[in-house]
Design a protein that fits this description.
It is built from three helices and five strands. The chain has 153 residues and is α+β, with helices and mostly antiparallel strands.
């Protein structure tokens, strides 16, 4: 049975959660400068967040299955490249793809874009949006370099 989806671009989103610690402080700043710029986030012993990441992918539904991609594929991909390397880790020390990056939410999100984007570059779907929440009140969104209409988050 053929599906009438040819030419339609769909967006699918998978959300994952992870807990991680970090410290926001620049080595070239004094303790006073770090406290002034980063506030409590410059605590010498660090602090933690319960992060939530929503990854949105786009593509045309397959003519045979009607799916852009099976959600299990996306779930496994995010488990491998986000949850496993980051959950219950110190982002300053334990995560190789954050080496030499101050682990602000913005920098974490951009690093995740590169990691996830590289994993799906040869797929029939593409990464279109990432949203990272560090709390229920704080989030960062990234839509890549190509202009497109963001999804509702």
């Amino acid at each position: 049975m053929a599906m009438p989806n040819k030419g339609r671009q769909l967006f699918i989103t998978q959300t994952v959660e992870f807990s991680a610690a970090h410290r926001l402080a620049r080595e070239d700043y004094s303790d006073e400068q770090n406290r002034s710029v980063f506030g409590k986030c410059a605590n010498p012993n660090g602090h933690g967040h319960n992060y939530r990441l929503a990854a949105t992918f786009s593509g045309q539904p397959d003519a045979q299955t009607g799916m852009v991609c099976h959600f299990d594929r996306i779930k496994a991909l995010l488990q491998e490249c986000v949850v496993e390397p980051m959950d219950h880790k110190n982002l300053n020390i334990d995560v190789p793809f954050l080496k030499d990056r101050l682990p602000t939410s913005e920098n974490v999100l951009l690093a995740l874009w590169d990691v996830i984007g590289n994993l799906v570059k040869d797929e029939s779907f593409s990464l279109r949006q990432l949203t990272l929440w560090s709390s229920d009140r704080h989030r960062v969104d990234y839509y890549g370099e190509e202009p497109f209409v963001p999804t509702n988050a």
